[in-house]
Amino acid sequence: MLVRRGWFRRRTRAGVFDADPAVGYLSLPDQEETFAHPGGGDVCTAIQFTPSLWASLFGQHRPATSAVYVDAALELAHRQFIASTRQADSDYALPESLLALTRAAIGPAPHLATRAAPHLAARATDRDIVARARVAIVEGHPAAGTLLSLAELLHVSPFRLSRAFTREMGVPLTRYRNRVRVGMVLERLECGDTDLAGLAADLGFADQAHLTRTVKQHVGHPPTALRRLLGTTVV
User: Fold this and answer.
1) H or E element that contains 216
2) How many domains does the chain contain in total?
3) Calpha distance 160→108 (Å, rounded)
4) Across-strand partners of 208?
5) Which of 12, 173, 196, 197 might form a disulfide with 165, Cβ 3.0–4.6 angstroms?
6) Domain boundary among 170, 194, 214
7) Cα distance between residue 98 and residue 205, in whole Å
8) How many C-beta neighbours within 10 Å does residue 17 have?
9) Same domain for 33 and 95?
10) Residue 234 within any structural domain of the chain
């Protein structure tokens, strides 16, 4: 739980805790808690993990304390996460933003820490993971539809996949996936496809507006202009 504005009081068996924009907290599903709002209203972000997702990210790790100090970097990650919820690309951009926020709040999971294996061998393993992720995305594997399902397909943590991909490719996984989809848009437009709404649905965009924004971000032109540049005209 992270507080954006205001503050409130939380009571558990461990005692009383005040949450504010500088201090958030973690709680477990079976933990009894009550709340009071002596300071008036507040605006918060509550993020819930299923047991299976938590295990895939952190294993059996449980933080030693429920309190989370929110420094400026964590507040920025929090606000970036909020901004990502307003974007249409929720299958990749939102999970990647959530992973960054969770890592900033909780820290790296123990099972993701560097082990005694040689550094180059570890990099080679990550390189293989990234290569297989790229193949899944390019070939349109059903599991490549979301970051979490892609990580499950590759039998790795979403944390590791996201971090390894950015390191090996120089761009985030979200941008790479969009780059591949933009290439597919160009191919379809060049072949004379005029149904942009149908094209958006076929390629997994939220809607036609999402497709148009993404294409323009990558190539600097909307689909209608691209049709003219490619020698055809949108009907």
Assistant:
1) helix 208-219
2) 3
3) 10
4) none
5) 173
6) 170
7) 20
8) 16
9) yes
10) no
The contacts found for 135-140 with CB under 8 angstroms, 24 or more apart, are: 137/176, 137/177, 137/180, 138/180
Instruction: Establish how many alpha carbons lie within 13 A of residue 111's alpha carbon, considering only the half-sphere containing its beta carbon.
Output: 14
According to DSSP, the β-strands at 8-12 and 15-19 are antiparallel
Distance CA 19, CA 115 (A): 36
Out of 32-41, 42-51, 100-109, 115-124, pick the least confident.
115-124
Q: Would you place residue 65 in the very low, low, confident or very high pLDDT band (cuts 50, 70, 90)?
A: low
Two structure tokens written together for 208 = 């036609």
Task: Please give the Cα distance from 128 to 105 (Å, whole number).
Answer: 29
- pLDDT grade for 47, boundaries at 50, 70 and 90: confident
Q: For tokens 């992973």, name the residue.
A: 99
- Owning domain of residue 128: 114-170
Same domain membership, residue 203 and residue 148: no
Give CA separation, 225 vs 156, 171, 212, 235, in Å. 40, 26, 11, 12
The pair of three-digit structure tokens given for residue 212, joined into one six-digit string? 């148009």
Residue with tokens 């989809």: 181
Q: Which residues lie closer than 8 Å to 78 by C-beta, 6 or more apart?
A: 2, 4, 45, 70, 101
Find out whether 100 and 81 touch, Cβ atoms under 8 Å: yes
Query: Could you tell me if residue 104 is left (phi over 0), alpha (psi between -120 and 50 degrees) or otherwise beta?
Result: alpha
Q: Which two tokens stand for residue 204?
A: 């997994």
Helix, strand counts (H, E) of the chain: 10, 7
In angstroms, the CA 62 to CA 182 distance is: 41
